[in-house]
Amino acid sequence: MRSRRQNRPSCRRRTPAAFRPGDTLRLGNPSRLIDEATPPLTINPMMHTDLIERLHATPWRGVLAITGGGSGAIERLLTVPGASATVLEAVVPYCQTALADWLDETPARACDERTARQMAMCGFERARRLAPDADPRTLFGVGCTASLASSRPKRGDHRAHIAVQTAGRTLLVTLQFEKGRRSRADEEGATAHTVVATLAQIAGVHQLDLTKTPPGIEASVEDVAAPAEWVELLLGERDVVTLHHAPAPRGVAVCLFPGSFNPPHAGHAAIARHAAERTGRPVVLELSITNVDKAPLDYIELTRRTHALAGQPLWLTQTPTFAQKAELAPGAVFAVGADTIERIGQGRYYADDAARDAALQSLAERGCRFLVFGRMADDQFAGLDHLALPPALRALCDGVPETDFRVDVSSSEIRSS
Length: 417
What we know:
Maf protein, Rossmann fold, 2 domains, seven-stranded mixed β-sheet, 14 helices, 32% helix
């Protein structure tokens, strides 16, 4: 007869010190979660005090953004003396418009682990602006989005996603609550409790332990410690990281293929092959961790995308504009879609028309050109000849005719399917 201990599901865990750069940790069990910050059935208001005092005594400072569920963590942090040493700012972007304003975009789903990670990254970037003289390696951003019990029955799961972003790490904790087992107040308390515990884990005064979760709560943890080169890239201390045997920047003339590759698909591979044949140059994929429209990519997201592009020469950069890309790759041919070249010509991405013309002039002076691939738009194929571009931009472009290349697939369609 097996003992109760033998019947327990095993939950092996490496401590953060054992993580290798880029490691991902996934842990989850229907009856496991977090020790000193274990979400109890009812939260004792005094339960966090010692933990929060230790947190306030560390050099860590940052910004919290919590969409509603879990916002009790803000109160707990602020009511323990010493909060000014830890909290630079705390916001509750409760409505959809407020959340979109915080993220600088409307998320596909409000309660989603990707949204929580984006919120945390926005918080980290905000902390850097609020504390410009601080060591950025001691700053954090917290993002929490939750869908908890409410006055109306919910078809989806009751869940919470808590993310913490630092210069060197992205940590994500997801809670899933058994419906009907806890009140809104209890689910809120458990979420707030976990926010504090996750932040304390980052600060080194607490260790998440998935062996003491109350019944009815499932938990998973994903934790990526970034390689030093990724940290330097995020902090602006370097401009490129080369992967998968990619050539060094400012070296050989390349065909640079920028994109989000979220996810990569057969169309990307076909464009790379055609661009190599057309230009006679090595094709290097380029993934910028920053975007003119969005928050930087976090380390969980970067790990997923670089793994999906394994084996293909790749640059990770912090160059959201093509003028910046041209500085890394003078003389490059940029392989782009018709939608991208159209955006390059739009005035909304520049201070004014003069700034746009100056950017295009810098591309010409560096000997860069665009190889433009058509794509479907409104059920019609749109190639270079279908676009109304500024003359200075059109002069830098060569189009690939539909008879030579056409692939009717996009990453956005794959994500929405």
